[in-house]
Amino acid sequence: MNETRAPVVQFLDVALRLADGRPIVSGISFDVRPGEILVLLGRSGSGKTTTLKLINRLLLPSEGKVTVEGRSTVEWDPTKLRRRIGYVIQDIGLFPHFTVARNVAVVPTLEGWDERRKRERVRELLDLVALDPASFADRYPSQLSGGQKQRVGVARALAADPPLLLLDEPFGALDPLTRLELQRELKALQARLHKTLVFVTHDVREGLFLASRIALFREGALAFLGSPHEFLRSENPEARAFVKALKDTDTTANE
Amino acid sequence: MNLIDFLLRNRAEFITLTLQHLFLVGVSTGIALVVGVPLGILLTRRPRFSPSVLGLANIFQTIPSLALFGFLIPLPFIGGVGARTAIVALVLYALLPIIRNTYAGIQGIDPAVREAGRGMGMTDRQLLLMVEIPLAFGVILAGIRVATVIGVGVATIAAAIGAGGLGVFIFRGVAMVNNTLILAGAVPAALIALVADFLLGRLERHFAPARGQLAEVRAV
Asked: Which of B120, B131, B137 to mutate to test the interface with A (most CBs of A within 10 A)?
């Protein structure tokens, strides 16, 4: 097997249990291939966010093994691991006391880059997410719209050029038009930068649009894994439920 | 005017008592700060201890000040008559607002901010110094302000156990039924409290809420 095609992330029969033994997720096995957008799809509470947090070691598995770049997350130094992985969450979590520029430069700052290199990188990244550096770099997060904030969130996640990005319903709180715009831009961005993305959503339309492959979660287990094309034809009951919901909204809208 | 006349004639004693007063408040608030801020931060890391620690601090603050002095006097090492006992009591009074505001200020930070920080690979120390303390700073300052103002007030009573301070004039005035003497202690003490409140209030507004973006974080 070609070395560069080795999976970026690998789940090997992973379970995470609460203190009382009840599983939040169990029996999870899958690979994340380099350069793909893997969408983790599922209802609320199906275990997709938990699975995401197992990748950047915000959670550790109770059973099985999660590896990133071939090394188990248990062996990774958590801060080193997280600085190699971009992380974008629905609530964004921009630091309100930092300007946009300082927010974007958080990981470079932690990594000790010099000021000039940071400034250049911030300018480059703001351009990348279609925010004019001249007018946005010195603003505070409270002076931005929801869509602008999430653009900064994505720029921040890309700052240290991590090969892997984790996105947890990043566009969930945005209005439908802004959401569509950001979905398109994210897809274009990924095609240009060749990053590997793991994207959590409960929105099947968003999943189908973005995914190279869809991993469908149901009650803490992986119910289906395959391409969007396979997903639409799947006989899996949960997949069919999602596809049916998609068709129903379309039909209703067309009536 | 009688009062000014009196203070001028007794300025040596007046200055001594004022300095004693400032010393009592300064030292006790300083100790409470050094103990209370780290304790408040610790509680945010181990929140299950917060009800017992805050409860205990609350008990100290609920005890009437003269009674608290009374409780402390018979104790070995920290007790007895004099400034040391007064400082112990003042520290106990100052702890609650400082611990509580440090804890509440940090707890009040948007959880997404903390998750983002951890997710980007900040160590706990970096998260604390770069994010949590700066964002909670205004609320912590509000606690320090409350502690200082309470301290100035309680310190006037410290004269009753021989700790000095402006309370000496007040108690002497009460004993001698001399209004001028009472005012010679009461007016400067009130002025110190007002000035401290004003200065710390300005400092607080300068820092908090961090550039108007933390409207949800308020002192409890």
From this structure: B120
